[in-house]
Amino acid sequence: MDDGKGSALVVALTKSGKRFGGYNPLGWMSSDDYGNTNNAFLWFEKNGKGVKCPVLSGGNAAIFDFATGGPAFGSADLCIGPPEAPVMGGFTGPDMENVSSIAGDLKKGKSSVGGAYQFVQGWPVAGKFGVVEVEVYCNLEVGKRLSYGNKGLFSFFG
What we know:
The chain is mainly β. It contains one helix and ten strands. The longest helix has 6 residues. The protein is globular.
C-alpha cells in the first residue's frame, strides 16, 4: 500500500462499471489497527456526480489499516483486497517472513455499509465484488512539510 504518504483518496472501478471509493485523512502505516476520524468518508458516482457516505458520529473505527491487505474503511463498510488470513496484530503484521501467502487480492472486495459509515441509497456494491482497477491518490506534500533537509529533525533545535 502507500504507507507513510499521508491522506489518501481511493478510487475503485468494478467489472460492471461502478465507480466508488473512500477518503482516508489519516493515511496508512500497515499497523493492523483501527483509526478514528470524523473526516473520513465513502463516496460513489451516481448519474455522473459524486455522492458522499459520511462517517457516523464520533468516527470510531472509520479506517482499518491492514498490514497485508488493501484499503479498508470501517471493519466491513468497504474493503478492497482483504487479507487471506485473519488479522491478529503483530502476528500477521509486517514482521512476518512471508506475507505474500496471506496478502489480499486487489481484484476482490467486499462491502457492508452501515457499521462505521452512513448508508446512502444507491451505494453501488454489497457483499463480495470484483474490481478491475484501484487507484490511490496520496498527499505527497506531507513529506515536504516534515522534511528538515539532510541534517535531520533535531538539527532544527540547535
